[in-house]
Amino acid sequence: MRKGISLLIAIVLLTGCRDEKVIDRLGFISTIAYDLAGSEQGNNMLHISISIPKAQPFNERVLLSTYAKTSKEARFTFSRQNNRQIVNGQLRSVLFGKTLAEQGLWSRIDTLVRDPGIDSEVSVVVVSGDANALLKSKYPQYSESRYIDELIQTETKSRDIPNTNLHSFTRDYFDDGIDPTAPLLKKGDMGLEIDGIALFHEDRYVARIAPEDALLFSFLTGNFHTGDITVSSSGGDGIDTGDIMMGSLSSKRSITIRHLDALRDGNHLDVTIKLKIRGSLMEYIGPLKLQQSADQIKLESDLNKYVEKKTEAFIRRMQAVKADPIGIGLYARSSMRYKQWKAADWHDRFPHVKVHVKADVKIKDIGKLQQS
Amino acid sequence: MTTTTPDHKPAQPPSVEAALAEFSTCIDIEQRTFPKNAIQAVYLLHLVSQDQLYREIIRPFMNATDDETAHLLTQSVFSEVCSHCECVDAILNGKAALYQGNQAWIIDLARPIGRTIEQSETESVIAGPHDGFVENMMENLAVIRQRIRSSHLKTVELSVGEVTKTPVIVAYIEGIANPDLLQALIDRIKGIETDAVYEANMLVQMIDDNPNSVFPQFMTTERPDVICSKLTAGRIVCLVDGSPSVFSCPTSFFEFFTSPDDYYQRWQLGTALRLLRIIGFLITIGFTAFYVAVTTYHYEMIPHTMLLNLVESRSRVPFPPLFEALLMETTIELLREAGARLPTKIGQTIGIVGGIVIGQAAVQAGFTSNVLIIAVASSAIASFVIPSYIMSASIRLIRFGLIILAGILGNLGLIVGIGFIVIHLAGITNLGTSYLTPVAPMNKMDWLDSFIRGPFYLLRNRPSQTRTTNTVKTKMRK
Fold first, then answer.
1. In B, which residues are within 8 Å of A11 by CB distance?
2. How far is CA A112 from the centre of its chain?
3. Are the beta carbons of B253 and B438 closer than 8 angstroms?
4. What Rg, from alpha-carbon coordinates, does chain A have?
5. Which of A254, A287, A293, B85 lies 20 to 30 Å from A182, alpha-carbon distance?
């Protein structure tokens, strides 16, 4: 009885001691943009903007912007400015300016990952240019945070950009033998535009894959079941495919590692990446007569050459900047002993690895006409 | 006060004077004297049928001589009694007592009082038998006997209440029901010491294992087909005179979520309905509380497409979500209670007033958010999916506790509350059997006929909770 009474008293008296967050008194950050501040603000300063969507009028938002050393410092400034308590549990995407990304993102992402209120599925996006400016602009589409979010979701689905969120970035950053990637965004004439894929060396942005090549790049990064590709190569480099558009693409990747020396010390690796690509032909403008099977076979072998040439070129570029977004290192690591793996940094080994791509493109469906 | 009638010595001989003294100042006692043969009849005026009274007593005895009277009294409808006490009991039961000198006879002239068999209002079904129990216990027993034509259907007659002396019948099927449980039930009913019992739902509260639990521990129903299925499952049923409810035991918590139509429809549909009721139970118990927890503490959990709408409708509400929810839940309960007390025609008006006026206007006036209206309304609707009215009322009450806990501690409070409910349920016993059968103790065969309604060829065994020795009920193959 006494226990019950003391419990009751505790419940009544302790009701004030609670971390109440009633939704109508909160301002939800939906997007954060980080940039390096210009030199007039001093070194190490960040330019941080947040966007808080408003319920009324629809698609309106509150945009707060400040200069601070850390993002938490910026939070205090924002709290002083906003009438509602600022929370980041509804954060959807984080934008990083290109110059900041070139310096390294880990310390920013670490802050975000540390906060248990932030979902690990928050998108990480690199902006080619000024992230704050991109966030401040008005777009005729939805409010910018929803626009960014939905753009990235749909583009991820069609495999044009990798699905990079806080979790995958952190995982790839800490995992030996793979480096993170992130979508690149830029401000176009009509609105936002995907500007390709950012490749990282550890947490530093080092290279960019152009948006036209994004799907070819995603052949290398894993398996997928849907996607469309346009190929346009008109004989300039020995491959004449004509203009092709292929749909319903599915791709399977397999990586085999061969040690060229008997000791298997991990320094002489030969990597073969096999790509099994299936798709149906949607559009073809070119010299071949595709109703004939001989020409179909020729087209397939042309496509094979095209894919191999392009992807191998990507790999040369990655090796040049010591970035391994494909995760060849993961396969290399499992092919050797831990001691040998630890003997050298993968980033130093990677440029010397011989990588070959073997493509196997098959056109499942060529159209309605067939000549026997 | 446990007794009002003075003790009678068993040997007290029957006499008119004693009988009239017993019923002094009762306006409905009637005494009729036949001077020709010195017969005196005593009976309670409105308990006896006037037709029968005229046919069996007034006409034959009016002009009968002594010899004829003696002959008449040898008829089998008259039985001789030799104590005053028996006479009084008989008169109270609607019989007439005939006195001649020191001798007395009784004759049953009782007329049926109460309504005829009609559909149960609280437990109506679409498919299936439409008769319901009535207030007359014997008629109810007859309805059961009509369905179970077996001499193994045995009854034990008991009486409860020192003043009301309400007859109670415990019925079971010999060879199926567990005799230990039967004895336990009889002992408990015999152990009741109270003035009056009017209803089966009242009786069960005097014999249950956990009198302070909010959950009903005996399944009561007004449907004969349900009671018959309980009997054949090996459960023991109990009829109370004057109550259209009949209860069965031992009862499991999940029995309250079954309805007879589960068996009258195809098994896939029956299964779907049972799952629907369990979903309804979860919605009733937790939906509003979850709304309170999420809007007060866990804004992270709201899908972002819905967030702004919710904020917008919440922003005009002056109260914190906890008070807002309690206010609306109380309003709904007021509506429900008002609708239950009013005749059907006015009840409909209440529904319209409640639904349209309060629902629409409360949101427009900034009294509540429209998402809360959805939460409250759907949990009210979901509560009516539970077939047992008594269980559904209990669950609606628990909901308030969960809302308050959710308002104080958020999702933690919600989980703590649900934890308490589960612990409490696991602790309840019914005649010594576990209330949470077949979850604890686990019995997979029982699952086929509790959470789902398996096809009949799979429902081979009687429920384990009945502790029957005769376990097989179906031998059919697919």
1. 408
2. 17
3. no
4. 25
5. A254
Longest Cα–Cα distance in chain A: 95
> A14 to chain B, minimum CA–CA distance in Å?
9
Which residue in the block uniquely carries the two structure tokens 């799979």? B458
- CATH number, span A211-372: 3.30.300.210
Taking the Cβ of residue A13 and every Cβ of chain B, the question of whether any pair is shorter than 8 Å is answered with no
3-state secondary structure B26-91: CCCEEEEEECCCCEEEEEECCCECHHHHHHHHHHHHHCCCHHHHHHHCCCCCCEEECCHHHHHHHH
Pick the residue from chain A with its C-alpha nearest to B318.
A24
- Contact check, Cβ <8 Å, A54/B320: no
| Buried residues in A3-17 as b, exposed as e (16+ CB within 10 A) | eeeeeeeeeeeeeee
Q: Do A24 and B309 touch (CB under 8 A)?
A: no
Instruction: Order across the sheet with B166-173: list the strands.
Output: B153-160, B166-173, B236-240, B246-249, B219-221
Beta strands B429-430 and B153-160 are unpaired
**Chain centroid to CA B434:** 21
As given in the structure block, the two tokens for residue B314 are 């919440």
Q: Taking each helix axis as running N to C, give the angle between helix B370-383 and helix B304-314, from 0 to 180 degrees, rounded to the nearest 10.
A: 100
Strand B166-173 versus strand A354-365 pairing type = unpaired
Contact B139, B124 (CB under 8 A): no
E strands present in B340-450: 429-430, 433-434
Amino acid at A353: V
A169 by DSSP, 3-state: which? helix
C-alpha span between B269 and B137 (Å, rounded): 34
**What residues does each domain of chain A span?**
20-209, 211-372
Q: Chain B partners of A51 at a C-beta cutoff of 8 Å?
A: none
- CA-to-CA distance for A109 and A125, rounded, in angstroms? 11
